[in-house]
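Hi there,

I know you've been waiting on this one. I reran it after we fixed the sequence typo, so this is the corrected version. Both the input and the resulting structure follow.
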Amino acid sequence: MPDDPLIRIVDPSVMDVASSALYDAEPHVAWSVGYAPELDDDGGRFLLASLHAAGHEGRVDVEIAATQLGGDYPAALEGDAAASFEAALADAEALETLYAFARMTAISALGLVDIDVEVPRMTPAPAVSQLVRPDASESDGNSDDD
């Protein structure tokens, strides 16, 4: 599916960043993006992007929150509409920009602790999935098990 020029990603914010030299693994990178199945009150869709990169000298993890705007998709994404949105988001140029933001954050965190882990310039293929809300009983601390 071609890039949807109507998909925009705005207001990226670093939610979490962690790096550690106490990690040794074969070099690997994972880039994933979760999206809210429904629009917020302002007509945007919440995104949570995660970048993980690791190697023999350590690892870094970055989580970025952002809002997706635009595109001709229903307010609530289910079934074929969700699959179409996921494919369009995975190919969106805006997602490459979000990766660049996460990458610069990761490189800064690695530099602070002097760890050499490769974080590729080219955006890896993202794993795109719908975010799932916890059950109300889990999120408010009340459960029938008490």
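Quick highlight: The chain has a mean pLDDT of 86.

Best,
R. S.
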